[in-house]
Each structure stands twice: as structure tokens, then as C-alpha cells.
Design a protein that fits this description.
Layout lengths: L15 H10 L4 H18 L6 H34 L2
Helix pairs in contact: 1-2, 2-3
Length: about 90
């Protein structure tokens, strides 16, 4: 406690990240999954800053939005493959 003010640092662990990385690595080639891994590394790097500048916040939002869109596209592709497979069973 410095100067009578206590600093609190909060940490969390998002289990979903483990599964998204597995999806990024489950591609035909390394080149296909590499952009997702690089995007996650950039977000993690920015989130590790003690404070965020306006440009940091903008970049974090952009990267997380790209990640969400990528995840939705991957899930949609998996759903349509599943639906087609089930229809032929």
C-alpha cells in the first residue's frame, strides 16, 4: 500500500481461448491459422499494458471484433457441414 491507496489487479482466465486456439491450429496449413494466432498475440500484448491509450483501446476493439467475426464464420461453416452430414445419414 503506497500513500494510503491500495492497488488492486484483477486477473481472469477465459477458457474459450483454449478452444479458439485449437481451431486456429486445426487448419490444413500453418499459414491458414497463423493470422488468428498473431491477432490473439497482439490483443494479449495490448491487454497486458498497465493503462490503455485511446489508440490501444481502438486497436483492442478492432482485433476483438475481427476475432469474433472469424469465430462466427468458423462455427457457421462447421454447422453447415454438420447439417449436410446429418442429412445424408
Amino acid at each position: 500500500m503506497a500513500g494510503g491507496v491500495a492497488a488492486t489487479r484483477i486477473a481472469s482466465f477465459n477458457v474459450e481461448n483454449m478452444f479458439l486456439r485449437a481451431n486456429a491450429l486445426n487448419q490444413d496449413t500453418w499459414a491458414e491459422g497463423r493470422p488468428a494466432l498473431e491477432r490473439d498475440a497482439k490483443v494479449n500484448s495490448l491487454l497486458n499494458n498497465l493503462s490503455y491509450s485511446a489508440s490501444d483501446k481502438t486497436e483492442i476493439a478492432k482485433l476483438l471484433t475481427e476475432r469474433e467475426l472469424s469465430t462466427r464464420a468458423t462455427k457457421a461453416a462447421g454447422s453447415s457441414v454438420s447439417a449436410r452430414t446429418e442429412a445424408h445419414v
